[in-house]
Design brief:
Elements lengths: L5 H16 L9 H26 L7 H18 L3 H23 L4 H21 L1 H4 L5 E2 L15 H24 L1 H11 L1 H6 L4 H27 L1 E2 L1 H4 L2 H15 L6 H20 L6 H16 L7 H13 L1
Antiparallel strand pairs: 1-2
Protein backbone atom coordinates (compact mmCIF):
# COMPACT_ATOMS: atom_id res chain seq x y z
CA UNK A 1 0.00 0.00 0.00
CA UNK A 2 1.42 3.38 -1.02
CA UNK A 3 1.61 5.87 1.81
CA UNK A 4 0.97 9.54 1.24
CA UNK A 5 3.84 11.96 1.65
CA UNK A 6 3.55 14.95 4.01
CA UNK A 7 3.07 17.20 0.96
CA UNK A 8 0.20 15.04 -0.28
CA UNK A 9 -1.43 15.05 3.15
CA UNK A 10 -1.12 18.84 3.21
CA UNK A 11 -2.70 19.05 -0.24
CA UNK A 12 -5.58 16.83 0.84
CA UNK A 13 -6.13 18.92 3.98
CA UNK A 14 -6.20 22.12 1.91
CA UNK A 15 -8.63 20.52 -0.55
CA UNK A 16 -10.89 19.39 2.30
CA UNK A 17 -10.87 22.87 3.83
CA UNK A 18 -11.75 24.37 0.45
CA UNK A 19 -14.60 21.88 -0.07
CA UNK A 20 -16.06 22.62 3.37
CA UNK A 21 -15.81 26.41 2.93
CA UNK A 22 -16.94 26.53 -0.71
CA UNK A 23 -20.72 26.89 -0.08
CA UNK A 24 -20.15 30.11 1.86
CA UNK A 25 -19.30 31.75 -1.48
CA UNK A 26 -22.83 31.09 -2.75
CA UNK A 27 -26.34 32.18 -1.86
CA UNK A 28 -27.42 29.54 0.72
CA UNK A 29 -30.72 29.03 -1.15
CA UNK A 30 -29.58 29.97 -4.64
CA UNK A 31 -29.17 28.18 -7.95
CA UNK A 32 -25.39 27.88 -7.73
CA UNK A 33 -25.42 25.89 -4.50
CA UNK A 34 -27.98 23.50 -5.99
CA UNK A 35 -25.63 22.81 -8.91
CA UNK A 36 -22.82 22.09 -6.44
CA UNK A 37 -25.08 19.67 -4.56
CA UNK A 38 -26.01 17.83 -7.76
CA UNK A 39 -22.35 17.67 -8.80
CA UNK A 40 -21.42 16.09 -5.46
CA UNK A 41 -24.33 13.65 -5.63
CA UNK A 42 -23.53 12.53 -9.18
CA UNK A 43 -19.85 12.25 -8.28
CA UNK A 44 -20.83 9.85 -5.49
CA UNK A 45 -23.13 7.94 -7.85
CA UNK A 46 -20.37 7.66 -10.46
CA UNK A 47 -17.98 6.48 -7.76
CA UNK A 48 -20.43 3.74 -6.76
CA UNK A 49 -20.74 2.75 -10.43
CA UNK A 50 -16.94 2.82 -10.64
CA UNK A 51 -16.68 -0.09 -8.20
CA UNK A 52 -18.09 -2.60 -10.64
CA UNK A 53 -17.33 -0.88 -13.96
CA UNK A 54 -13.98 0.74 -13.21
CA UNK A 55 -12.42 -2.14 -11.31
CA UNK A 56 -13.94 -5.16 -13.10
CA UNK A 57 -14.77 -3.59 -16.48
CA UNK A 58 -18.43 -4.62 -16.17
CA UNK A 59 -20.06 -1.63 -17.85
CA UNK A 60 -23.53 -1.38 -16.33
CA UNK A 61 -26.27 0.70 -17.97
CA UNK A 62 -28.88 -0.29 -15.42
CA UNK A 63 -27.75 1.44 -12.23
CA UNK A 64 -30.77 3.72 -12.46
CA UNK A 65 -32.77 0.72 -11.23
CA UNK A 66 -30.95 0.77 -7.88
CA UNK A 67 -31.10 4.56 -7.69
CA UNK A 68 -34.87 4.54 -8.23
CA UNK A 69 -35.36 1.72 -5.74
CA UNK A 70 -33.58 3.82 -3.13
CA UNK A 71 -35.61 6.95 -3.85
CA UNK A 72 -38.95 5.14 -3.69
CA UNK A 73 -38.09 2.94 -0.69
CA UNK A 74 -37.26 5.77 1.71
CA UNK A 75 -40.06 8.02 0.44
CA UNK A 76 -42.76 5.35 0.71
CA UNK A 77 -41.58 4.38 4.19
CA UNK A 78 -41.76 8.05 5.22
CA UNK A 79 -45.22 8.61 3.70
CA UNK A 80 -46.94 5.44 4.94
CA UNK A 81 -45.10 4.66 8.17
CA UNK A 82 -43.38 7.88 9.20
CA UNK A 83 -39.96 6.20 9.07
CA UNK A 84 -37.02 8.60 9.18
CA UNK A 85 -35.17 8.84 5.84
CA UNK A 86 -32.00 7.87 7.71
CA UNK A 87 -33.56 4.47 8.43
CA UNK A 88 -35.14 4.56 4.98
CA UNK A 89 -31.65 4.92 3.55
CA UNK A 90 -30.59 1.71 5.29
CA UNK A 91 -33.66 -0.09 3.97
CA UNK A 92 -32.93 1.32 0.51
CA UNK A 93 -29.35 0.04 0.65
CA UNK A 94 -30.56 -3.44 1.63
CA UNK A 95 -33.14 -3.56 -1.17
CA UNK A 96 -30.65 -2.13 -3.64
CA UNK A 97 -28.13 -4.80 -2.69
CA UNK A 98 -30.75 -7.54 -3.03
CA UNK A 99 -31.81 -6.21 -6.44
CA UNK A 100 -28.16 -6.12 -7.54
CA UNK A 101 -27.73 -9.72 -6.38
CA UNK A 102 -30.82 -10.90 -8.24
CA UNK A 103 -29.83 -9.24 -11.51
CA UNK A 104 -26.18 -10.27 -11.14
CA UNK A 105 -26.83 -13.99 -10.72
CA UNK A 106 -27.94 -14.48 -14.34
CA UNK A 107 -25.91 -11.66 -15.94
CA UNK A 108 -22.43 -11.65 -14.39
CA UNK A 109 -21.37 -14.52 -16.62
CA UNK A 110 -21.94 -12.18 -19.57
CA UNK A 111 -19.21 -9.90 -20.85
CA UNK A 112 -18.89 -6.73 -22.87
CA UNK A 113 -21.93 -5.40 -24.67
CA UNK A 114 -24.00 -8.45 -23.69
CA UNK A 115 -23.72 -7.48 -20.02
CA UNK A 116 -24.39 -3.79 -20.80
CA UNK A 117 -27.56 -4.67 -22.73
CA UNK A 118 -28.79 -7.01 -19.98
CA UNK A 119 -28.41 -4.31 -17.32
CA UNK A 120 -30.00 -1.75 -19.64
CA UNK A 121 -33.03 -4.02 -19.97
CA UNK A 122 -33.27 -4.35 -16.18
CA UNK A 123 -33.29 -0.59 -15.75
CA UNK A 124 -36.00 -0.21 -18.40
CA UNK A 125 -38.12 -2.92 -16.74
CA UNK A 126 -37.97 -1.01 -13.45
CA UNK A 127 -38.97 2.21 -15.22
CA UNK A 128 -41.97 0.50 -16.83
CA UNK A 129 -43.00 -1.01 -13.48
CA UNK A 130 -42.69 2.41 -11.84
CA UNK A 131 -44.93 4.00 -14.47
CA UNK A 132 -47.47 1.16 -14.41
CA UNK A 133 -47.80 0.60 -10.66
CA UNK A 134 -49.48 3.93 -9.99
CA UNK A 135 -51.06 2.83 -6.72
CA UNK A 136 -47.62 2.46 -5.16
CA UNK A 137 -45.32 4.81 -7.06
CA UNK A 138 -47.75 7.48 -8.24
CA UNK A 139 -47.10 6.38 -11.83
CA UNK A 140 -46.16 9.02 -14.41
CA UNK A 141 -47.63 11.72 -12.12
CA UNK A 142 -44.77 11.16 -9.70
CA UNK A 143 -44.53 11.26 -5.93
CA UNK A 144 -43.73 14.03 -3.45
CA UNK A 145 -41.74 13.81 -0.24
CA UNK A 146 -43.89 15.12 2.67
CA UNK A 147 -42.68 18.58 3.59
CA UNK A 148 -42.14 19.49 7.25
CA UNK A 149 -40.34 22.07 9.32
CA UNK A 150 -36.51 21.87 9.12
CA UNK A 151 -35.64 18.65 10.88
CA UNK A 152 -32.37 16.68 10.85
CA UNK A 153 -34.18 13.42 11.59
CA UNK A 154 -36.35 13.93 8.49
CA UNK A 155 -33.39 15.11 6.40
CA UNK A 156 -35.02 18.47 5.70
CA UNK A 157 -33.12 21.71 6.11
CA UNK A 158 -33.84 25.41 5.91
CA UNK A 159 -30.89 26.16 3.62
CA UNK A 160 -29.54 24.27 0.61
CA UNK A 161 -26.08 24.72 2.13
CA UNK A 162 -26.86 21.93 4.61
CA UNK A 163 -27.59 19.55 1.75
CA UNK A 164 -24.20 20.45 0.28
CA UNK A 165 -22.36 19.18 3.35
CA UNK A 166 -24.55 16.08 3.40
CA UNK A 167 -23.72 15.34 -0.26
CA UNK A 168 -20.04 16.03 0.44
CA UNK A 169 -20.08 13.52 3.31
CA UNK A 170 -21.76 10.96 1.05
CA UNK A 171 -19.11 11.47 -1.65
CA UNK A 172 -16.28 11.09 0.87
CA UNK A 173 -17.83 7.91 2.28
CA UNK A 174 -18.39 6.29 -1.13
CA UNK A 175 -14.87 7.28 -2.22
CA UNK A 176 -13.37 5.73 0.92
CA UNK A 177 -15.31 2.53 0.19
CA UNK A 178 -13.97 2.55 -3.39
CA UNK A 179 -10.38 3.07 -2.20
CA UNK A 180 -10.73 0.36 0.47
CA UNK A 181 -12.04 -2.11 -2.11
CA UNK A 182 -9.38 -1.18 -4.66
CA UNK A 183 -6.62 -1.85 -2.11
CA UNK A 184 -8.15 -5.04 -0.75
CA UNK A 185 -7.94 -8.62 -1.99
CA UNK A 186 -11.32 -8.09 -3.64
CA UNK A 187 -9.86 -5.15 -5.56
CA UNK A 188 -6.89 -7.19 -6.79
CA UNK A 189 -9.25 -9.94 -7.93
CA UNK A 190 -11.44 -7.42 -9.73
CA UNK A 191 -8.48 -5.91 -11.54
CA UNK A 192 -7.26 -9.38 -12.49
CA UNK A 193 -10.69 -10.00 -14.01
CA UNK A 194 -10.49 -6.67 -15.82
CA UNK A 195 -7.11 -7.54 -17.35
CA UNK A 196 -7.97 -11.10 -18.35
CA UNK A 197 -10.95 -12.97 -16.91
CA UNK A 198 -9.84 -16.34 -18.31
CA UNK A 199 -6.37 -15.99 -16.80
CA UNK A 200 -7.92 -14.97 -13.49
CA UNK A 201 -9.98 -18.17 -13.51
CA UNK A 202 -6.84 -20.22 -14.16
CA UNK A 203 -5.07 -18.81 -11.08
CA UNK A 204 -8.06 -19.61 -8.87
CA UNK A 205 -10.20 -16.44 -8.88
CA UNK A 206 -13.93 -17.16 -8.74
CA UNK A 207 -14.74 -14.47 -11.28
CA UNK A 208 -18.53 -14.71 -11.07
CA UNK A 209 -18.62 -14.56 -7.26
CA UNK A 210 -16.11 -11.69 -7.18
CA UNK A 211 -18.09 -9.59 -9.66
CA UNK A 212 -21.35 -10.29 -7.82
CA UNK A 213 -19.87 -9.06 -4.53
CA UNK A 214 -18.74 -5.84 -6.22
CA UNK A 215 -22.14 -5.42 -7.88
CA UNK A 216 -24.01 -5.84 -4.59
CA UNK A 217 -21.85 -3.21 -2.87
CA UNK A 218 -22.26 -0.86 -5.84
CA UNK A 219 -26.04 -1.39 -5.97
CA UNK A 220 -26.45 -0.81 -2.23
CA UNK A 221 -24.48 2.44 -2.33
CA UNK A 222 -26.37 3.68 -5.38
CA UNK A 223 -29.72 2.95 -3.72
CA UNK A 224 -28.73 4.87 -0.58
CA UNK A 225 -27.81 7.85 -2.77
CA UNK A 226 -31.30 7.64 -4.30
CA UNK A 227 -32.63 8.48 -0.83
CA UNK A 228 -30.51 11.64 -0.70
CA UNK A 229 -31.79 12.66 -4.13
CA UNK A 230 -35.42 12.22 -3.06
CA UNK A 231 -34.93 14.32 0.07
CA UNK A 232 -33.08 16.98 -1.91
CA UNK A 233 -35.57 17.30 -4.78
CA UNK A 234 -38.80 16.65 -2.82
CA UNK A 235 -40.46 15.36 -6.01
CA UNK A 236 -39.58 12.72 -8.60
CA UNK A 237 -41.21 10.35 -11.07
CA UNK A 238 -40.21 6.99 -12.62
CA UNK A 239 -38.78 8.58 -15.77
CA UNK A 240 -36.47 10.71 -13.63
CA UNK A 241 -35.06 8.21 -11.15
CA UNK A 242 -35.19 5.14 -13.43
CA UNK A 243 -34.09 7.06 -16.53
CA UNK A 244 -31.36 5.50 -18.65
CA UNK A 245 -30.03 8.80 -20.01
CA UNK A 246 -30.63 10.92 -16.91
CA UNK A 247 -29.10 8.47 -14.43
CA UNK A 248 -27.37 5.35 -15.81
CA UNK A 249 -25.63 6.91 -18.81
CA UNK A 250 -24.79 10.06 -16.85
CA UNK A 251 -23.07 8.01 -14.14
CA UNK A 252 -20.99 6.20 -16.74
CA UNK A 253 -20.23 9.39 -18.65
CA UNK A 254 -19.01 11.21 -15.54
CA UNK A 255 -16.68 8.36 -14.55
CA UNK A 256 -15.34 7.94 -18.09
CA UNK A 257 -14.76 11.67 -18.66
CA UNK A 258 -12.97 11.97 -15.31
CA UNK A 259 -11.02 8.72 -15.49
CA UNK A 260 -12.62 5.33 -15.03
CA UNK A 261 -11.13 3.09 -12.37
CA UNK A 262 -9.63 5.97 -10.38
CA UNK A 263 -10.83 7.54 -7.13
CA UNK A 264 -10.54 11.15 -8.30
CA UNK A 265 -11.94 10.55 -11.79
CA UNK A 266 -15.67 10.64 -10.90
CA UNK A 267 -15.16 13.82 -8.87
CA UNK A 268 -13.40 15.60 -11.73
CA UNK A 269 -15.94 14.28 -14.20
CA UNK A 270 -18.93 15.41 -12.15
CA UNK A 271 -17.58 18.93 -11.62
CA UNK A 272 -17.05 19.20 -15.37
CA UNK A 273 -20.16 17.47 -16.75
CA UNK A 274 -22.87 18.80 -14.41
CA UNK A 275 -21.93 22.52 -14.58
CA UNK A 276 -21.28 22.22 -18.34
CA UNK A 277 -24.73 20.75 -18.87
CA UNK A 278 -26.34 23.51 -16.83
CA UNK A 279 -24.43 26.27 -18.66
CA UNK A 280 -25.39 24.78 -22.02
CA UNK A 281 -29.04 24.74 -20.95
CA UNK A 282 -28.88 28.33 -19.71
CA UNK A 283 -27.16 29.72 -22.81
CA UNK A 284 -28.64 27.69 -25.67
CA UNK A 285 -32.01 26.31 -24.56
CA UNK A 286 -33.86 29.47 -25.65
CA UNK A 287 -32.12 29.62 -29.03
CA UNK A 288 -33.55 26.50 -30.67
CA UNK A 289 -35.11 23.22 -29.61
CA UNK A 290 -32.44 20.68 -28.77
CA UNK A 291 -29.54 23.09 -29.34
CA UNK A 292 -28.33 22.94 -25.73
CA UNK A 293 -28.18 19.11 -25.83
CA UNK A 294 -26.34 19.27 -29.17
CA UNK A 295 -23.72 21.70 -27.85
CA UNK A 296 -23.32 19.70 -24.64
CA UNK A 297 -22.88 16.46 -26.59
CA UNK A 298 -20.35 17.96 -29.01
CA UNK A 299 -18.24 19.34 -26.15
CA UNK A 300 -18.23 15.96 -24.41
CA UNK A 301 -17.20 14.21 -27.63
CA UNK A 302 -14.33 16.68 -28.07
CA UNK A 303 -13.14 16.03 -24.51
CA UNK A 304 -13.20 12.26 -25.04
CA UNK A 305 -11.42 12.58 -28.40
CA UNK A 306 -8.66 14.68 -26.82
CA UNK A 307 -8.13 12.22 -23.96
CA UNK A 308 -10.14 8.95 -24.15
CA UNK A 309 -8.80 7.85 -20.75
CA UNK A 310 -10.26 10.89 -18.99
CA UNK A 311 -8.95 13.90 -17.13
CA UNK A 312 -6.81 11.73 -14.85
CA UNK A 313 -4.62 10.81 -17.83
CA UNK A 314 -3.88 14.42 -18.80
CA UNK A 315 -1.30 14.95 -16.04
CA UNK A 316 0.86 11.93 -17.00
CA UNK A 317 0.58 12.92 -20.67
CA UNK A 318 1.88 16.42 -19.93
CA UNK A 319 4.75 14.96 -17.89
CA UNK A 320 5.70 12.69 -20.78
CA UNK A 321 5.59 15.59 -23.22
CA UNK A 322 7.74 17.74 -20.93
CA UNK A 323 10.16 14.86 -20.49
CA UNK A 324 10.53 14.49 -24.25
CA UNK A 325 11.06 18.24 -24.54
CA UNK A 326 13.93 18.09 -22.00
CA UNK A 327 15.66 15.43 -24.03
Amino acid sequence: MNRLSPTQWLGLAALAALAIALPFAFDPRGYGIRILCLALLFAAMAQAWNIVAGLANQISLGHAAFFGIGAYTSTLLLIHFGVSPWLGMVAAAVLGGIAALLISLPTMRLRGHYFALATLAFGEVMRVIGNSWGGLTGGPVGISVPFSQPNFVLLQFRETRSYYWLMLAALILVTLVFIAIKRSRLGYRLRAIKENADAAEVIGVDTTRTKIIAAVISGALTASLGTLYAQFQFFFDPDTVFGVASVSVRMAMIAIVGGIGTAAGPVLGAFFVIPLEEVANQVFSAQAAGLSQLVFGVLLILVILVEPRGFMAIGPRIKRLLGKGDR
